[in-house]
Every structure is written in structure tokens, then in C-alpha cells.
């Protein structure tokens, strides 16, 4: 964790929550050991098998504003790290009927409580909710009298019209992903090979090779 980019979302106390629209494709990274005096500077983490322990982060646009951050536009980086948080996000994505986190989707995370309230290193419990990009667009308020939601259906109705092609391109950022990129994203969220193969259409052998190379 750490490094450049958007400020990190903070979940210091039970009840801390963040909600926002995903503004960039999720990025996979290898987890590091926690070092109190050197955040993000610990040793890289590996499974006993020698495979790297991978996680994913997403940048979401929120209504937060920190006066101490110059030109704070509300974007926060959410690190989906640790098997419990990964599982909660994965379950939220599944419940939404989505293949994975995508640009335009809305992610909401709440740190509800700790296993041992007196031990700040004990397991955190989370509540996760995900709204896929298409549904998030339908729920977005109209701006300047322009109906955002109806703008998408017209292009899909006249399928033979070439001029309608550019219109779906904006909300459909996720489908533009290559299957291999989507597979890596799903690995990071915690899906197994069979689930990734089903979501991407890739052969099981290709999925296994991508996981080994990740």
C-alpha cells in the first residue's frame, strides 16, 4: 500500500464508511507486511507455496473533502486487502450479478466492528455493497435537465445503426477490457479458476497459466 495517486480511504474506527463511483479500472498489487513506522514499506507477502499474495485497489469518487489536501476532489483509493474483505467484496459483486468491479460501478464499504474491540489488530468485520455500472447510471440524478439513463437505451434498439456505436462506449468501459485483464482483476478479488473461466470465457488452461504468471 501507499505510494502516489489518490489519498487512501481510512477505516480507523467501527462505523467508518466510504461510498463512491469507481473512476479507474481496478489495479492489482502484491501485499506487503505491515510495518508501523514505514507504511507500505514492509516485505512482500507470499503464500507458503511461493505464490505472491495479490490484492486489488480501486479509486472511487466520493463527496469527502479534506481541507489539508490541496485540490482534494473527493477521490479516494480503496485497498481491498485481506481474505475477509476480499470475500465480502466478492460476495457483494456476486449479489449484484456482476462479473467484477468496473469503472462506473458504485462501491460502498463500511467497517462495522472488530472481533475483539480491545485489540486493534484483531479481525475487522465489513459490510460491502456494489452497484454495477449500468444500474448506477440509471440511479444517477439528471443534470441540467438531461436524462442520463434514457441516453443509453436508444442506441441498443436500432442495432443496425452504425452511428449509435460511440454512445454505448462511454458507459461500457468494463466490457472493453481484454479477457486476460479481466481475469487478473477477478484473481485479485478472490475468485477461483473455475469462476474466472466462466466469467471471461477463457479456457481453464489459459486461466491457470495467467494465475501462475500474475
From TrEMBL:
Basic and acidic residues bias spans: 30-40
Region of interest (Disordered), residue spans: 1-42, 141-179
Low complexity compositional bias, start-end: 158-179
Protein name: Single-stranded DNA-binding protein
Organism per entry: Cellulosimicrobium cellulans F16
Amino acid at each position: 500500500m501507499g505510494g502516489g495517486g489518490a489519498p487512501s480511504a481510512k477505516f480507523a474506527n467501527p462505523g467508518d464508511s466510504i461510498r463512491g463511483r469507481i473512476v479507474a479500472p481496478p489495479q492489482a498489487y502484491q501485499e506487503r507486511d505491515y510495518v508501523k513506522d514505514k507504511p507500505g514499506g514492509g516485505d512482500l507477502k507470499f503464500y507458503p507455496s511461493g505464490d505472491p499474495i495479490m490484492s486489488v485497489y480501486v479509486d472511487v469518487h466520493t463527496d469527502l473533502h479534506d481541507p489539508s489536501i490541496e485540490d482534494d476532489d473527493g477521490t479516494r483509493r480503496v485497498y481491498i486487502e485481506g481474505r475477509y474483505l476480499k470475500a465480502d467484496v466478492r460476495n457483494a459483486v456476486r449479489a449484484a450479478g456482476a462479473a467484477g468491479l468496473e469503472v462506473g460501478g458504485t462501491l460502498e464499504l463500511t467497517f462495522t466492528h472488530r472481533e475483539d474491540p480491545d485489540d486493534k489488530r484483531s479481525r475487522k468485520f465489513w459490510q460491502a455493497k456494489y452497484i454495477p455500472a449500468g444500474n448506477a447510471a440509471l440511479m444517477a440524478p439528471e443534470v441540467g435537465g438531461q436524462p442520463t439513463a434514457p441516453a443509453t437505451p436508444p442506441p441498443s434498439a436500432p442495432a443496425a445503426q452504425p452511428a449509435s456505436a460511440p454512445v454505448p462506449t462511454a458507459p461500457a468501459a468494463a466490457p472493453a477490457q481484454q479477457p486476460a485483464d479481466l481475469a487478473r482483476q477477478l484473481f485479485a478479488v478472490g475468485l477461483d479458476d473455475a469462476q474466472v473461466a466462466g466469467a471471461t470465457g477463457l479456457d481453464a488452461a489459459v486461466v491457470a497459466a495467467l494465475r501462475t504468471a500474475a
